[in-house]
Amino acid sequence: MTIQNIQEFLHRVRERISLKHGEVSSQTELVLWSMVKLTEEVWELAEQINKWRGRQDERKGDFEMQDLEKELADVILAAILMGDELGIDVSDAIQKKTAIVKQRREE
């Protein structure tokens, strides 16, 4: 699956959410909502990493790799969605950043 496919999927998801909950009034509000969602997903990923490390409250259940994978995917999807809301070509941004990292490693 390409980033473009993911963006198209997220557009369809956003349309369904808009139909259910109403349209967001401004781009600023949409970006802030995306940031809140990304923060929530990072927190859930952190909880799974704590379980993986054996440092989670036992009342929250046992570690399952599929839960960690799901939360990591949620973070990636939320980041792509926020980039899209900001008008960033996420695929291009990743290519540029990869080139920077590659250049640093060669120095």
Identify the CATH architecture: Orthogonal Bundle
N/C terminus separation: 32 Å
Order of helices and strands: HHHH
Q: What's the main sheet like? A: none
List the helices and strands and how they pair.
Layout: H1 3-21, H2 27-53, H3 65-85, H4 90-106
Helix pairs in contact: 1-3, 2-3
Overview of the structural elements:
The protein is an all-alpha fold and 107 residues long. The chain has helices at residues 3-21, 27-53, 65-85, 90-106. Helix 1 (3-21) crosses helix 3 (65-85) and helix 2 runs antiparallel to helix 3 (65-85). The protein contains 4 helices and no strands. The mean pLDDT is 86. The chain has one domain: MazG-like (Helix Hairpins, Orthogonal Bundle).
Describe the structure concisely.
The chain has 107 residues and is mainly α. 79% of the residues lie in helices and 0% in strands.
Features:
107 residues, mainly alpha, Helix Hairpins, 0% strand, globular
